[in-house]
Specification:
heterodimer, A: alpha/beta, Rossmann fold, six-stranded parallel beta sheet, 6 strands, globular, B: 207 residues, two-stranded antiparallel ribbon, 8 strands
Chain lengths: 184, 207
């Protein structure tokens, strides 16, 4: 059965593609030196672009084994004057919390995480809701600043919001998570 | 696995050797007894990053520093981790192996225990840590004496890495005071140090 929104005439794939394009546009603008990632299905086109642009020499692209490893690598890169960007799934935020609260937060490092968020309206996988819907609350409990992008943010503001979140991390000298819900 | 005789090398001696061998290179030091004993033998050094918590992340942090633009001023970037810490973040040796940073040296001080929490056993005595690293593309040495460590460091400076030096140490902890600074001070000092160009160390020629 297709998602209800598709049945009502909303093309979810088209919506996801439009938003993913804006995420890609923001990454190009931010021009990170290193992109560290664990893929997700909704950000597949973004990871494809990250890999393709890495082959052009735009940045270094590095697949991670675990989210906390990404926090560690990004922190090391920031110590050494790089401008890293992390792309992870909300399902991996549980893995990242200890690393976030013991490294970039107390050492004041502006680690930026683009977190693909699932769960809630339009989610088609019943297993995703469990953690996905609670990720914002978990990050807030850990004192991590979040910015949430979903259908309440017009798609033409997604790129500027992501760029703004990167600037916010720099300005506050703290890690920031941008939650990207491409399905709702 | 064959049982090897008890080692004579202490953590303090190993740390002193490492600090002396890398006087200007960035050195990332793992939490607990490692940081406290490093402070005993080397004091607060501008090129040392003291990781006060974040157990298991020293290999990942060292990889980040090694890949960063400011690492170019240094021949090597060094991470010092225990066996418990390595095992906690073990998958990072896969990521490092794939990234192949030639300037990275990971020194594992392996006493087979979680020293900071009372000497409980780790899985390390049943494992071949250097062998696992080799399988991930590291160059390795497996040493258990001060002389062996010194020779391993000379080799790791002379030939491209990534390197993992597994150093068997004894279970003795040196009494050392707590180190309880604001981590921001440590971060600012280390960032500033890396941002300041330093004259490259003369290469240590192999014997």
């Amino acid at each position: 059965m297709p998602p209800l929104t598709t049945a009502l005439g909303v093309d979810s794939r088209e919506v996801v593609a439009l938003r993913a394009d804006q995420v890609a546009r923001a990454i190009e603008h931010v021009a990170p030196t290193h992109v560290l990632w664990i893929p997700s299905s909704t950000l597949k086109s973004v990871i494809d672009l990250v890999e393709a642009r890495a082959r052009d020499g735009a940045w270094i692209s590095l697949p991670l084994t675990r989210e906390e490893e990404g926090i560690g690598i990004a922190s090391g890169l920031l110590f050494g004057g790089a401008r890293p960007l992390l792309i992870i799934q909300d399902n991996g935020i549980g893995n990242a919390i200890t690393a976030l609260t013991t490294l970039p937060q107390p050492y004041h490092l502006p680690v930026v995480m683009l977190v693909s968020q699932r769960g809630g309206l339009n989610e088609y996988n019943s297993m995703i809701h469990g953690l996905g819907e609670r990720v914002e609350g978990i990050l807030h409990a850990a004192g991590i600043r979040t910015f949430l992008l979903d259908e309440r943010v017009p798609v033409d503001r997604w790129a500027t919001s992501i760029v703004g979140a990167c600037e916010h991390a720099e300005m506050t000298h703290r890690p920031v998570a941008v939650l990207l819900n491409l399905l709702y | 696995m064959t049982t090897l005789p008890p080692t004579e090398l202490t953590r303090l001696e190993a740390l002193a050797t490492i600090a002396q061998a890398f006087p200007t290179e960035p050195v990332v030091v793992a939490l607990g007894t490692m940081v406290r004993e490093m402070l005993l033998v080397a004091g607060r050094r501008a090129n040392h990053l003291h990781v006060l918590d974040a157990m298991g992340l020293v290999p990942a942090i060292t990889l980040g520093v090694a890949m960063s633009p400011h690492a170019a001023a240094h021949a090597r970037v060094v991470g010092i981790e225990g066996d418990g810490g390595l095992l906690m973040g073990l998958s990072s040796i896969a990521t490092i192996g794939a990234a192949r940073p030639e300037n990275l040296i990971l020194v594992i001080l392996d006493n087979g225990t979680y020293a900071a929490t009372g000497g409980q056993r780790t899985a390390a005595p049943h494992l071949d840590l250097a062998g696992m690293a080799r399988a991930c593309g590291f160059q390795t040495h497996d040493v258990r004496t001060a002389a062996g460590l010194a020779v391993a460091i000379i080799d790791a400076k002379a030939r491209p890495g990534p390197w993992l030096l597994r150093v068997a140490i004894g279970p003795v902890n040196q009494p050392a005071p707590y180190f309880l600074p604001d981590p921001v001070e440590l971060a600012i000092d280390f960032r500033r140090y890396l941002a300041t160009p330093v004259p490259p160390q003369p290469d240590v020629a192999p014997a």
